[in-house]
């Protein structure tokens, strides 16, 4: 009797992608709220167009946009020839585009810089975590 074994490479499961994405999302939400709270405590205004952004709002918005990012990752995983490369290109471009409202906002320069910093913090946590689960 002859037994033949073959090995195949299996793409990471959707569950692992979503799990790691969810963990990164929670970490990014906490991190952006912490950055905003620390900046506010240091005297940086969170006012945009005369209205303050609540510190928990940073966590909420991070969570919403990270969830949209996970949907993008799932789509790329299914349809892109090289999902990891596509994910990195798309998310870096979207991170750069996310600076546009900050630059145009009716806010102090330090507030604008803070908003852009929170985008970078979230991206630095979420992009690599999801990329690791894409082939």
UniProtKB/TrEMBL annotation:
Domain of life: Bacteria
Transmembrane segments: 21-41, 53-74, 86-107, 113-131
Annotated signal peptide: none
Pfam families according to UniProt: DUF6069
Keywords: Membrane, Transmembrane, Transmembrane helix
Protein's recorded name: Cell envelope biogenesis protein OmpA
Gene source species: Kribbella yunnanensis
Lineage of source species: Bacteria, Bacillati, Actinomycetota, Actinomycetes, Propionibacteriales
């Amino acid at each position: 009797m002859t037994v033949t074994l073959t090995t195949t490479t299996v793409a990471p499961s959707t569950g692992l992608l979503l799990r790691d994405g969810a963990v990164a999302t929670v970490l990014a939400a906490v991190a952006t709220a912490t950055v905003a709270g620390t900046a506010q405590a240091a005297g940086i205004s969170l006012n945009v167009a005369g209205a303050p952004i609540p510190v928990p709002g940073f966590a909420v918005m991070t969570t919403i946009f990270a969830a949209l990012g996970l949907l993008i990752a799932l789509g790329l995983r299914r349809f892109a020839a090289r999902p990891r490369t596509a994910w990195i290109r798309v998310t870096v471009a979207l991170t750069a585009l996310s600076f546009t409202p900050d630059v145009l906002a009716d806010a102090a320069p330090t507030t604008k810089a803070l908003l852009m910093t929170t985008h970078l913090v979230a991206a630095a946590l979420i992009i690599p975590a999801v990329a690791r689960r894409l082939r």
